[in-house]
């Protein structure tokens, strides 16, 4: 991880280029597609680009965690790890390449916590842990990854019930550490884009129904961190918000794009990546 991370850190810390607002055109289809391991990724109209072959292994790769989830509760029967996949990953990788000078891989990766390649990725993205269940070897691998410099970003889970399930799993990873709420003054809300309040992004379907959040959680968004002994964030959980839906659904509705993708989802995503790569 160290060499690749150093290059990404240099790109993020020295040469981030942003605009006051994310003035970008909508791309991608933004509807859920079936995924089977081994399938070629259908980009759905998201542009592809080429990085310098000499440094093809030294670009930021958006890595999504594949895990097991219980077949019960909200949205049963759906593999929770692939919510918003692949459109969210493709769109965010493209916007990161477009709006900053961080060179990113156009395709991203799906990884399991027990993969030998895990330490190649300085940041991992994990969604919908409300029904997640980590096996013991995954717990050990995630602890090692985080303590050795990795950053786990958890997104898109709602209600106290889903928080409790995530908490039970992450406490197995770090039994001696507690998640702590990040104040609005924390640099993660200001390092590139300035936020006057912690962003809360609903799914586009909740927004169509007139809601600003999902399942009665409006105004209850939480950004909690688990830190190492030096105060570095190892785990960031974005609870009662769905940042990734603003990426996936950017091409579905101009109003949702303007209100959430442009103003909240992409700026917060860029802030998190930049912060993770420079601290």
Model description:
This protein is α/β, with parallel strands linked by helices and 279 residues long. It is 32% helix and 13% strand. The protein is built from seven helices and nine strands; from the N terminus they run H-E-E-H-E-E-E-H-E-H-E-H-E-E-H-H. The chain has helices spanning 2-14, 87-99, 136-147, 159-173, 204-208, 243-248, 254-278; strands spanning 63-66, 68-69, 109-112, 123-127, 132-133, 151-155, 180-181, 222-227, 233-239. The chain has a seven-stranded mixed β-sheet with strand order 3-1-4-6-9-8-7. It is globular, with a radius of gyration of 17 Å. The chain starts with a helix and ends with a helix. Mean pLDDT is 87; it is low at 1-23, 29-35 and 73-77.
């Amino acid at each position: 991880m160290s060499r690749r991370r150093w290059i990404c850190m240099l790109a993020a810390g020295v040469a981030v280029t942003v605009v006051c607002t994310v003035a970008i055109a909508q791309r991608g289809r933004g509807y859920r597609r079936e995924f089977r391991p081994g399938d070629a990724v259908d980009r759905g109209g998201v542009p592809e680009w080429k990085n310098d072959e000499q440094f093809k292994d030294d670009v930021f790769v958006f890595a999504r965690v594949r895990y097991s989830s219980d077949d019960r509760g909200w949205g049963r029967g759906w593999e929770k790890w692939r919510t918003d996949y692949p459109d969210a990953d493709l769109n965010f990788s493209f916007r990161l390449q477009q709006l900053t000078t961080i060179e990113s891989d156009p395709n991203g990766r799906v990884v399991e916590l027990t993969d030998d390649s895990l330490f190649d990725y300085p940041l991992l993205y994990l969604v919908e842990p409300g029904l997640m269940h980590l096996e013991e070897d995954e717990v050990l691998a995630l602890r090692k990854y985080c303590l050795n410099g990795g950053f786990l970003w958890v997104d898109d889970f709602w209600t106290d019930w889903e928080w409790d399930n995530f908490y039970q799993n992450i406490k197995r990873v770090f039994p001696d550490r507690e998640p702590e709420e990040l104040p609005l003054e924390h640099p993660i809300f200001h390092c590139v884009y300035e936020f006057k309040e912690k962003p809360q992004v609903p799914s586009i379907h909740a927004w169509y129904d007139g809601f600003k959040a999902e399942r009665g959680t409006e105004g209850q968004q939480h950004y909690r961190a688990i830190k190492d002994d030096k105060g570095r964030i190892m785990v960031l959980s974005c609870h009662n918000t769905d940042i990734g839906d603003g990426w996936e659904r950017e091409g579905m509705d101009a109003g949702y794009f303007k209100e959430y993708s442009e103003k909240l989802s992409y700026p917060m995503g860029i802030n998190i990546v930049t912060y993770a790569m420079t601290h």
